[in-house]
Amino acid sequence: MPDPESMQEGVRTPGTRKIVHVDMDAFYASVEQRDDPTLRGRPVVVAWKGLRSVVCAASYEARRFGIRSAMPAVRAERLCPGAVFLPPDFSRYKAVSQAVRAIFERHTDAIEPLSLDEAYLDVTTNKTALPTATLVAKTIRQQIREELHLTASAGIAPNKFLAKIASDWRKPNGQFVIQPHEVQNFLQALPVGRIPGVGKVTEARMAQAGIKTVGDIYAMSLPTLQEHFGSYSVRLYELARGIDHNPVVSNRVRKQVSAEDTFAEDLPLNALVGHVRRLAEKVWKASNSNARRAKTIVLKLKTREFTSLTRSLTPRTAIATCEDLTAIALRLLDRVDLPADQLYRLVGVGLSNFEAKDDIAQDSSLAEAEASEFLLQPPA
């Protein structure tokens, strides 16, 4: 069990890191507004129109109507009938993201991207000899604004956990600093929903235990937390004290490559073969953009009733060809044991459990493959 007294010193020890979390403001929508001046000041929603589509991004003008990312597009249309809907252009967003990355690299090589629009930077030391992390963040944001005509927000703190929270504090186009000696005061009144890993279900469990703020967690002993939250209790205990020793990891290895289709109309299982073939080809092309192969193939389904179902198989050797991937994905369809009249709204194919090509055995036989299967229940 961790020593509580030593843990409380986690954010105050000498040699504290300087972490910046940079988050582009309404990134996809802002790129669209930048590139088309007629869209500026108007509610812009990046999403395909359709019954099954979801919102990829919403401009701040659209957010005033309650539109948020991951919201069904049809609901967004109801909230703001006058919104401009644009299909996403990920190749363009990726190019802009690479330009942002180039700005980061002027200041540090310790960069951990989380997505196209956000990243952690360790600027404990920086290339431009700027005296403070605050000034590094300000300079980066200024360069993004002047060179790319976009805005970004930033959080500056002694660790990743705090920096990510801080980057939301002055959005859009702002930055917020949490100094080491300010950590505990900052955290006390913070809602527990702001803690990474605390979703709606965990938040509801916490409310039942009388926990509403990070300060409430701080006031509880580790044994008491363990009674309620098991193995997650140590992480909660640390975060309530502002402790996060996770380093910024450059060139993070991608753990999974996947693609999925959501159908305009629900389909029976036997109608999914063509979709699975096409998705397998798409995933294979994406996975071969690096020097690794995957050992596990995953088939994902979502039923008409929103139950998520997965089937996975890990052959003895890594997948060597697109034909192997397709064959296994189709074989996994046969392992779905729901009634024949069951309808599905989504199918996905994925590769995971990657290894380096140098470590791959030459024998690609699938004869002795072993499968692992599990059924995920619908969310509570």
Automatic annotation (TrEMBL):
Pfam families reported for this sequence: IMS, IMS_C, IMS_HHH_1
Record keyword Mitochondrion present:
no
The protein's matches in InterPro entries, at most eight in alphabetical order, are given as: DNA/RNA_pol_sf, DNA_pol_Y-fam_lit_finger_sf, DNA_pol_Y-fam_little_finger, DNA_polymerase-Y, DNApol_IV, IMS_HHH_1, Rev_trsase/Diguanyl_cyclase, UmuC
Record: residues binding Mg(2+): D23, D117
Q: Which family does it belong to?
A: Belongs to the DNA polymerase type-Y family.
The record's section on PANTHER family has: DNA POLYMERASE KAPPA, DNA REPAIR POLYMERASE UMUC / TRANSFERASE FAMILY MEMBER
Q: In its UniProt entry, what is this protein called?
A: DNA polymerase IV
- The annotated site for Substrate discrimination falls at Y28
Provide the function of this protein. Answer: Poorly processive, error-prone DNA polymerase involved in untargeted mutagenesis. Copies undamaged DNA at stalled replication forks, which arise in vivo from mismatched or misaligned primer ends. These misaligned primers can be extended by PolIV. Exhibits no 3'-5' exonuclease (proofreading) activity. May be involved in translesional synthesis, in conjunction with the beta clamp from PolIII.
Per UniProt, the keywords (alphabetical) are:
Cytoplasm, DNA damage, DNA repair, DNA replication, DNA-binding, DNA-directed DNA polymerase, Magnesium, Metal-binding, Mutator protein, Nucleotidyltransferase, Transferase
Cofactor detail note: Binds 2 magnesium ions per subunit.
The cofactor(s) it depends on are: Mg(2+)
For this record, the Gene Ontology CC terms, alphabetical, are: cytosol
The protein's location, in the record's own words, is:
Cytoplasm
Residues the record marks as active site: E118
Domain UmuC, residue spans: 19-199
Query: Assembly and interactions?
Result: Monomer.
Enzyme Commission code(s) on record = 2.7.7.7
Reaction(s) catalysed by this chain's protein: DNA(n) + a 2'-deoxyribonucleoside 5'-triphosphate = DNA(n+1) + diphosphate
Extract one GO molecular function annotation from the record: damaged DNA binding
Single Gene Ontology BP annotation: DNA-templated DNA replication
